Amino acid sequence: MTVEAVRGGVPEHGRVPKYYVVKSQLLNLLAELGEGALLPAERDLAAAYGVARSTLRQAISELTMEGRLRAHRGRGTFVAAPKLVQPLALRSYTEALREMGRRPSRRVVTVETVPAGPLGADLGIAATDQVLHLERVLLADDEPLGLESTYLPVARFPGVMDGYDGTGSLYQHMIDRYALTYAAAVERIETVLASPREAMLLDTNPAQPMLLMQRTSSDADGHPIERVRSLYRGDRIGFETHLHP
């Protein structure tokens, strides 16, 4: 099997799938319509582009998966707002979103104490030691963006939920309560599909690609602070980092 070079989405042999041509035309249309505009009816677009409605739907489906369109049942399909772009850094979700002009909030789903199990190795504790599991939906302007599970060693951080309702910044709460310094982190990012439960909590399609981020943060002495699993909607948020030699 040979690997063909692709430039601008067009293979070297020049044969472009019809839906991809329609997708390119739709992108131009979205730029003209602007954010929040209602997409014209399928039958009108199919007639304008001279394609079958099934071809048009494939193009619209890809643009929806990419977060360029948003479908609302009973209302139609609309031009989506640009994705949020959050920096990869040791900082609060709250702080990052506020700098982007968005209103951050969180909805608590689960607060429980469980054995560390396999996570104990990352947290420097035994598998039988207890960890606090705090699961929250991350929101921006009340729109679900991510589902975050944080695991904290109970022995190291006793009473961590005292005076804290889980809706504010855990990062800032930990700094204020325990005088912590978040000095380093190891983070892994990959693409996954959400489980039915996760998709329901994030108000998204289970077939929608998600960004899974798993982070272990450490203090200035190199001791693990927390293990965090964050699942983000790939159609609504992206991440960036600055690299230096």
UniProtKB/TrEMBL annotation:
The record ties this protein, via InterPro entries, to: Bact_HTH_transcr_reg (IPR050679), Chorismate_lyase_/UTRA_dom_sf (IPR028978), Tscrpt_reg_HTH_GntR (IPR000524), UTRA (IPR011663), WH-like_DNA-bd_sf (IPR036388), WH_DNA-bd_sf (IPR036390)
Please name the GO terms that the record assigns under molecular function: DNA binding; DNA-binding transcription factor activity
According to the entry, every stretch annotated as the HTH gntR-type domain falls at: 16-82
Provide the alphabetized UniProt keywords.
DNA-binding, Transcription, Transcription regulation
Record keywords: DNA-binding included?
Answer: yes
A Gene Ontology annotation in the biological process aspect, one of them, is: negative regulation of DNA-templated transcription
Q: Which domain of life is it from?
A: Bacteria
- Please identify the protein, giving its name as recorded: GntR family transcriptional regulator
